[in-house]
Design brief:
The protein is mainly beta. The protein has three helices and 29 strands. It has a domain of 121 residues.
C-alpha cells in the first residue's frame, strides 16, 4: 500500500509518501456480555396407578456486543509509536496508473439482542401403559417486527403413547415389548442477524461524485418480520420380539414450514446498493420414514449382530411469494443451494437444456424457446424462463442410512459399517476457459475437449476459444451435460478389538486390558456415476483414509 500511493517527482526524483512509511497496525476489539435469569417449578408425583410430572417457568436474557476496529499507519514495533496520519477522503494517483482513495477502515459496531420466554410441560401416565404429554412455550425477541403482534409466537406440542404389551389381549408369544406413540408440535426458528428496524453503516470511504463520507443501508425495516414456524406430526412404534432376536422402531412423519425466511429482490429504482433483503417469503412441506432394525443373527460362541438404519424423505416448496422467473436464478453451479420453485424439492438441480456441441466449431449449444441457439448472453439472461429449464432431480438423498455388522468370537470383535445414499444428483465441475486465462486454473476435462469435426460424437466438452466468453462458460457449467447421479455405497469404517483375558497379577494392578485398531474413511464401494467422482466431495479432495490404534486399561 505504501508503494502503491507513493508520488514520485519526475524532475527531482524525490518520493513523497502519502501513506507513512513503517508498519500498518490493525487493532480489533470485541466485548461480549450476557445475562440470563430463569425461574422454574418442578412437579413429580405418583399415587396408586397414576404418575404425573411437569415443569413451569420463565426466562429472560440479554446478549450485548460492542466492537471497534482501528488502523494505525507508520507504526514502529520497537518503539510502540506511530509517526503519521493519512487523508482518507481525497483521491491520489496510483504508482501504476489510475486514482484511488486510501479509505477509512476504522469502524464501530454493536448488537443488543433481548428475549423473554414462558414455558410449561407435563406428562401423565396411568397403569404404566397409557401416557399423554404436552408442552407450550412462547418466545419474544426484539429482533422481530415493531408490530407488537409479531414480536412473539406461542409454540406447543402434544403426544400420547400406549404400551400394548401390558394389555391382556396382546400376544406376548410374538412380542416382548410393543409401544405405539404419536405426537404433534410446532417449533420456531430465528435469524439473529436480521432486524425489524432499518440499519445503516458508514463505508469509511467518500462518495466518488461528492467527495463526502457516505453511508449505506445494510438492512431494511420490516415491521412484519416473523418467526419461522414448523409444524410436525409423528406416529410410530417401538418393538422387541420374544427372545430379543429382533428389535427396533418405525416412525412416519409429516412437516410443514410457514413464514420461512428467504431472499427477496429489491427494486433497483430505490438506488440502494443492496440487491436483496431477508423476509418471510416461503412455505414448504416434507414427509418421511425412519426405520431402525436390530437383529441377533447368530448367538452361539460365534455371535453375529446387525443394525439397519434407513431414512426416506421427501420435501416440496409449497409457495414462494417473491419468486423471480429468470432461469439463471435457479442454476446453482454446485447444485447444493436452495432452489425455491413451487412444486419441487427445496434442494433441486435445474439445468439449461443442451443440444450438444456444434460440429463446425465445438461450441456448446442450448435452446432459446424451442430453437437451438449459441446466444449465451440471452440463454443465461432474460431469454430463459424457469419453465425452460430441465429438472434433473433432488440434490439431497431421498433414501439414506447405514448397515452395521458386528462379529464376536471369544475375545475378538470385528465391526464393519457401510453407509448408503440413493435417489439424488450432483453437478460435476469441468473446464472454464475464463478461469484458465484469468487465473491459470486448469481442469482434467481439458484433455478431452472438442478439437475437430467428429469429436462431438465422443465428447461433450467444448472447444478452446480465445478470448474466452464468460457467458459461454456459464452456460456450459449450468447445462444438463454435467449432471450425474450421486447414488453410492461407502465403507465408513472397520474396527477390530481384542480383550486380553485373565489378567490377574499382584505386580500389575490391571483388571482389564483391550487393544483396538480402527480404519475409517475407506472410500466408496460403488457409485452410480462413471467419472470416479465421490458425490460427498464432488469439488474437493476426499478426506484421507485414517488408521488408528488404541490401548485401554482398567485399574
Amino acid at each position: 500500500m505504501i508503494n502503491q500511493f507513493t508520488q514520485l517527482n519526475q524532475v527531482t526524483g524525490i518520493a513523497k509518501y502519502i501513506v507513512p512509511r513503517g508498519s500498518i497496525l490493525d487493532l480489533n476489539k470485541i466485548e461480549l456480555s450476557s445475562q440470563n435469569l430463569r425461574t422454574q417449578i418442578d412437579v413429580d408425583k405418583s399415587w396408586n396407578n397414576n404418575s404425573i410430572s411437569g415443569v413451569i417457568g420463565a426466562e429472560v436474557g440479554q446478549t450485548r456486543s460492542n466492537g471497534n476496529a482501528y488502523r494505525t499507519y507508520g507504526y514502529n514495533e520497537d518503539l510502540g509509536v506511530a509517526t503519521g496520519l493519512i487523508d482518507p477522503v481525497n483521491s491520489y494517483p496510483l504508482f501504476y496508473g489510475g486514482t484511488a482513495t486510501i479509505g477509512n477502515t476504522n469502524s464501530f459496531s454493536g448488537t443488543d439482542n433481548r428475549s423473554i420466554s414462558y414455558y410449561a410441560s407435563g406428562a401423565y401416565t396411568y397403569l404404566s401403559r397409557y401416557s399423554i404429554s404436552g408442552s407450550i412455550r412462547k418466545d419474544q425477541s426484539n429482533i422481530f417486527g415493531v408490530n407488537t403482534n409479531q414480536k412473539g409466537r406461542p409454540f406447543w406440542s402434544a403426544g400420547a403413547a400406549w404400551e400394548l404389551t401390558r394389555e391382556k389381549f396382546f400376544p406376548l408369544d410374538a412380542f416382548s415389548y410393543f409401544k405405539l406413540r404419536a405426537t404433534y408440535g410446532t417449533s420456531g426458528n430465528v435469524d439473529n442477524s436480521l432486524s425489524a428496524l432499518t440499519v445503516m453503516s458508514y463505508t469509511g470511504s467518500p462518495n466518488s461524485l461528492t467527495g463526502f463520507t457516505q453511508a449505506v443501508i445494510n438492512k431494511f425495516a420490516n415491521p412484519d418480520l416473523r418467526w419461522e414456524k414448523t409444524g410436525m406430526f409423528n406416529i410410530g412404534f417401538d418393538f422387541a420380539t420374544s427372545g430379543g432376536r429382533i428389535s427396533g422402531s418405525l416412525d412416519y412423519y409429516q412437516k410443514r414450514g410457514t413464514d420461512l425466511l428467504g431472499d427477496a429482490l429489491v427494486d433497483i429504482t430505490t438506488g440502494l446498493k443492496v440487491t436483496s433483503v431477508r423476509k418471510n417469503v416461503a412455505e414448504m412441506s416434507g414427509k418421511g420414514i425412519d426405520l431402525t432394525l436390530n437383529s441377533t443373527n447368530i448367538d452361539r460362541k460365534f455371535k453375529w449382530r446387525s443394525t439397519l438404519l434407513l431414512a426416506y424423505t421427501q420435501n416440496r416448496v409449497q409457495d414462494y411469494y417473491l419468486s423471480t422467473y429468470q432461469g439463471s436464478t435457479y442454476i446453482t453451479p454446485q447444485g447444493n443451494l436452495v432452489t425455491p420453485v413451487a412444486g419441487y424439492p427445496v434442494y433441486s438441480i435445474f439445468s439449461y437444456r443442451s443440444a450438444g456441441l456444434d460440429p463446425a466449431n465445438g461450441n456448446p449449444r442450448g435452446y432459446l424457446g424451442d430453437k437451438i441457439s449459441t446466444d449465451y448472453t440471452a440463454i443465461t439472461g432474460n431469454g430463459t424462463h424457469v419453465a425452460d429449464l430441465v429438472y434433473n432431480g433432488p440434490s439431497t438423498p431421498v433414501v439414506s442410512g447405514a448397515i452395521r455388522n458386528t462379529l464376536n468370537y471369544k475375545n475378538f470383535e470385528l465391526a464393519v459399517n457401510i453407509t448408503y445414499k440413493l435417489g439424488y444428483y450432483f453437478r460435476k465441475s469441468s473446464v472454464s476457459y475464463s478461469a484458465l486465462f484469468s487465473g491459470w486454473v486448469q481442469h482434467a476435462d481439458y484433455m478431452s475437449r472438442w478439437q475437430k469435426t467428429g469429436d462431438e460424437h465422443f465428447t461433450t466438452i467444448p472447444s478452446l476459444i480465445y478470448p474466452a466468453d464468460p457467458n459461454r462458460d456459464a452456460f456450459y457449467a449450468g447445462s444438463e451435460t454435467l449432471v450425474r447421479r450421486a447414488d453410492h455405497l461407502r465403507l465408513q469404517y472397520i474396527s477390530i478389538a481384542y480383550s486380553v483375558p485373565g489378567i490377574k497379577s499382584k505386580k500389575l494392578p490391571i483388571r482389564d486390558l483391550s487393544i483396538t485398531a480402527n480404519a475409517s474413511n475407506l472410500g466408496m464401494l460403488w457409485a452410480a456415476n462413471k467419472d470416479g467422482i465421490d458425490p460427498d466431495y464432488p469439488y474437493d479432495i476426499s478426506p484421507p483414509k485414517m488408521l488408528s490404534f488404541g490401548l485401554r486399561a482398567q485399574f
